[in-house]
Sequence to fold (64 residues):
Amino acid sequence: MPRKIRALIKDLKRAGFINRGGKGDHRNFIHPKGIVLTISGKLGDDAKPYQELLVNQKIEESIK
Fold:
């Protein structure tokens, strides 16, 4: 079962990303190291596989 968008956002915030806002269902996140990521979808929507992969990749980048 896919995770929800709200779970991805929670992971990003835990990793130090800051929500810069966005238009509609889009949210722009930035990390102090300069890593940028946009997540689309409502909070209760199921996350697409590519979104989960991208979030995990960006979190790994922020750790290095």
Remarks:
- The chain has a mean pLDDT of 95.
- The beta strands are 18-21, 26-30, 36-40.
- The two ends are 29 Å apart (CA to CA).
